């Protein structure tokens, strides 16, 4: 058995020397979902994420992560750390044995390669963020068949990968 020497470098939270061997991506799941979403749903879900976070409303100092259908949020978590907010969300879903197939992940923070890989392990096919993805996250999203939409603000956003899940 030979190990691939292709490396994927990521920079996150000061770990700029962290890398993954291509074989490490085997734990990530290629998105197979046929879930689709409209532009209005993307904007409405981001607005709902911000409105549902009382801590964010009071402080502006936390990250939020939520699981949703294209029409509504059913689980939301906040934390000062963006990774922690996502981990809390995923942990709760695992404990409750909730299926995450055909779910949308809504996120307030930057989409790093590490965040994207966590979403892939959750079997997420559509990832929405108020912030931007890194170049590496976009490349991974393309490889893992994930739709990544960022800079969702007011009436605009950018689709970075797999736009075929957008209903026009």
Automatic annotation (TrEMBL):
Signal peptide: none annotated. It comes from the Bacteria. Gene3D superfamilies: Cytidine Deaminase, domain 2. One of its GO terms (biological process) is Mo-molybdopterin cofactor biosynthetic process. GO terms for molecular function: sulfurtransferase activity. Keywords: Cytoplasm, Molybdenum cofactor biosynthesis. This is Formate dehydrogenase chain D. Pfam families: FdhD-NarQ. InterPro entries: Cytidine_deaminase-like, FdhD.
């Amino acid at each position: 058995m030979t190990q691939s020497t292709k490396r994927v470098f990521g920079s996150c939270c000061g770990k700029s020397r962290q890398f993954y061997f291509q074989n490490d991506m085997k734990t990530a799941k290629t998105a197979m979902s046929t879930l689709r979403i409209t532009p209005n749903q993307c904007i409405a879900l981001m607005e709902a994420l911000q409105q549902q976070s009382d801590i964010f409303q009071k402080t502006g100092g936390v990250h939020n992560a939520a699981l949703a259908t294209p029409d509504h949020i059913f689980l939301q978590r906040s934390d000062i750390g963006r990774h922690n907010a996502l981990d809390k969300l995923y942990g709760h879903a695992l404990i409750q044995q909730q299926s995450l197939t055909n779910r949308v992940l809504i996120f307030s923070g930057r989409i790093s390669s590490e965040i994207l890989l966590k979403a892939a392990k959750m079997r997420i096919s559509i990832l929405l963020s108020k912030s931007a993805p890194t170049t590496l996250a976009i490349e991974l999203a393309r490889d893992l068949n994930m739709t990544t939409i960022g800079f969702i603000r007011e009436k605009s956003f950018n689709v970075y990968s797999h736009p075929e899940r957008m209903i026009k």
